[in-house]
Amino acid sequence: MRLQMKTFRFCEGLNSGSHWCSVKMSIKDVAKIAGVSISTVSRCLNSPENVKDKTLAAVQSAIEQTGYAPNALARNFRRGKTGLVMVVLQSVGLPFWEGVMRGINGVAREEGYSILIRETASSLPELDDYLKMVMSKEADGIIILASPSPFSSASAYSTQDRRTPIVLGCENVTDELAHIPSVRVDNRQAANEATRYLLQLGHERIGFITGSRGSLLTRDRERGYWDAMKTSPLGQHRDWVVNGDQSIEGARRATRKLLSLAERPSAIFCANDEMAMACIYEIKRSGLSVPEDVSVLGFDDIRYAAIMDPPLTTVVQPTEEIGERTMRRLLNAIEGRDIGEAPEIVEHRLIVRESTAPPQSETTAGEKRRELPV
Amino acid sequence: MRLQMKTFRFCEGLNSGSHWCSVKMSIKDVAKIAGVSISTVSRCLNSPENVKDKTLAAVQSAIEQTGYAPNALARNFRRGKTGLVMVVLQSVGLPFWEGVMRGINGVAREEGYSILIRETASSLPELDDYLKMVMSKEADGIIILASPSPFSSASAYSTQDRRTPIVLGCENVTDELAHIPSVRVDNRQAANEATRYLLQLGHERIGFITGSRGSLLTRDRERGYWDAMKTSPLGQHRDWVVNGDQSIEGARRATRKLLSLAERPSAIFCANDEMAMACIYEIKRSGLSVPEDVSVLGFDDIRYAAIMDPPLTTVVQPTEEIGERTMRRLLNAIEGRDIGEAPEIVEHRLIVRESTAPPQSETTAGEKRRELPV
DNA sequence: ACTCAGAAAGGAAACGTTTTCACGCCAAAC
DNA sequence: GTTTGGCGTGAAAACGTTTCCTTTCTGAGT
Hints:
The structure is a homodimer of 374-residue chains. With 374 residues, chain A is an alpha/beta fold. Chain A contains 13 helices and twelve strands. Chain A has helices spanning 2-15, 27-34, 38-46, 53-66, 72-79, 97-111, 127-135, 156-159, 187-201, 216-230, 248-259, 273-285, 319-334; strands at residues 84-89, 114-119, 141-144, 166-169, 182-185, 206-210, 241-243, 267-270, 295-300, 313-316, 344-346, 349-351. Chain A has a six-stranded parallel sheet, sandwiched between helices. In chain A, strands 7-6-8-9-10-12 form a six-stranded mixed sheet, sandwiched between helices. In chain A, helix 2 crosses helix 3 (38-46), helix 9 runs parallel beside helix 10 (216-230) and helix 11 (248-259) packs across helix 12 (273-285). The first copy, chain A, is elongated, with a radius of gyration of 28 Å. Chain A starts with a helix and ends in a 23-residue tail after the last strand. The model of chain A is unreliable at 1-21 (pLDDT under 50). Chains A and B meet through helix 5, helix 6, strand 2 and helix 12 of A and helix 5, helix 6, strand 2 and helix 12 of B. The structure holds a DNA duplex (30 and 30 nucleotides).
């Protein structure tokens, strides 16, 4: 009876003329047809160099016949690895992550890992939740890209023995979590330089639109701005820093606020490009022009930065490199190698386009027709 | 000796004062500590209503003590389900997918599934590859959002018995794959209506910038454009349709081509918003204005459409709804329910902003200062 | 021809769950 | 007091691999 069944299955595979069988084939079936043991079939799949050519051929033919595909569930279970890396980000669809994800994905494909996406846009989970997921073997490790910091409380990671593979990409961390490895630009330094560029152009009243309150990344950019302003002619002014909430709406509100100041800033530095886009929109809407009346400077160099009107001066990060290095570092951690705690800092650079210019002196104000670049 | 070991583990859990144990706890350890069988522990986890309150309490206490977390690998293996849904898209970071992914993720979270991302940007796999992945239990089902069609050849899906859970989101399909279920707007009809809107404004020479050659989705939009132009005063003109290659660069090239025509179009319909943004940029760069000289119409209503200069008139799709319905339909297929083959069509609508206007008669040409809307 | 080493293959355990089945117990019905 | 039924629990099988250990085979060296 049982043999009958096997025969049936086998014939099904042969007759259909296709690889797709309605009955799931297992390694056992392949072994039976090839006339070898299941261990040998397993070897053919995992270390073919340890098996005689003749047997290998027989097994391969059997696999062909049955349309056998190894059950990943069983394999992963046995190996104790999921082959999955969880990537936590705020939302798919934010242009900035395009390059980072490309880097991550490239390495992942290379090393045989798949990417599990977790969006924090709706719910805002704690770091602990992620640690639990790798504890319970839902993934082998975690990459955190989420801009809004998911670490609102002291986490178990600090009390724990720190063996859960986790790496931050782009993101900064609070001091008590500074031991979590990360790969990123020096946001503070980059923002400092960008602000100094505006100062060098001759701007004195420079506004800053911050990211979301919880984001450490943008907080560091804000610090960089303060650093630069400390040495500026007019010094630091609390009014010039407005919360843009990491959103288009927030940035527009912030811009309106800045424009309504008694002495309106002649330049606005936004913590990211998306807010810079919103900022430009709002400036234009109020009847002013960029950069003639107000210069705007962004951060990230997203794909739309160059086709804005005017094209956006911004700080560019090597996103793909960040993605690659983040993933490699995580994989090292997963393999059990010591990856240390120090952040890996990658190079940023300022790319000057048309949204920044020297401040307009009152006398030279007027209609100067700009030309958009190629 | 063996007992010794168990004791050691147990004490470790108790002494550390934390839930995180260096030695992995299994259901066996919990059972031993609670003084029950492993089946009972399993029941406590999966169907607590079938276990006496007292035992439940004992087990929960044991779980607490050990910091036990069920091994997802083993569980999924035993259940024969991965709890994973593979989402195939061209690239994370394309704003359009934001809403769709939110919808998918919402339902996924609700139903206890996780999302596996596969980007086709780099490699362009065949549908067969995806089918194989669910065959080999790497995921329970597949959602295909990839704009560039991943189906270059007749696929095994057509020859197969069609039991692999797969649903297309937004995407159209070629006729030979028309039996793959999908959730989307009626792209052809939507494009038809959008084009007719331009015609009604008085435009006669209307250009169209297509998506990538392989994309069926944008091909349908092109068809809709043709449908409308058939009835237009000047009729259809081959020159007016240019390949924008689904990219910023491609759209800019296409726009230059259209603008250099002997009789330049007074309106350009782009197969998606991103290309429309590039189109607007290029029009401005050539010294013309939108919409005074050339109207521009997009498709998708991505998050930046409203803060363009000018804000973009475009076709909006209910992206979150599409995501939700796509996911629900896939889950139904995974559960083995018959979901049919007919596409689920959702509502689109045209949202009119400032990038479209009646064509400028030669006489009224001049500097009319527009105001950006709130 | 005989031994022996190394290669190739087979047997069986193990991974951590879930689930089926059977058993024991207690309460209610006779 | 015996039967019946149902509830709570335990024992053990099963899921499909990989891997360790053992056995068998092969060919070269004596």
